[in-house]
Amino acid sequence: MSSKVINQELKEAIQRKGMTQVTLSKGTFRAKTTINGYFRGDPAPVEAMEDMATYLDDSLFSQDMSHKVFSVIPPMRSDVYQQSPHTLDIIHKLETEERKSRKNRAMLLLTKNSEALTEQDKEEILDYALNFLDEVFIETRCIVSILEKVNLSLMSAVQQRVPHWKRQKYMGGE
Q: Where does the source fall among the domains of life (predicted)?
């Protein structure tokens, strides 16, 4: 994996955390000049991004790094909508209604054998899945927004919840 420029994401993360470059340097066991270089725009290697994400324990920064390095789901930010739990819940409800309006048709289509699906059927199933993805994406951002109120990152919350999910048999493992 290659190094990436992350100066803007770092600036936003330490501002959210009320932290300084020196604190980040000490917490990640990296030279102050190295950390300062990342803030100036020097590319950061993947290992450094991982260490900083772990130390910062900031959901948006972690999502930013995952997106930059692995091209996974980007963090949701909007220049139009507030990122408050209330606003995100309203948007989530709208997305849920939109998905539900497509659900019955999609569920019927999903009962067909794959070879019997027409191109139109596949488009309707894809439309349903994409609307479902909208809903999940917004719901995830809503959870992050709620967790920010109690100063907990999404990853920390997931780590806390894994034992419960295992007891419920939602996931395997010891």
A: Bacteria
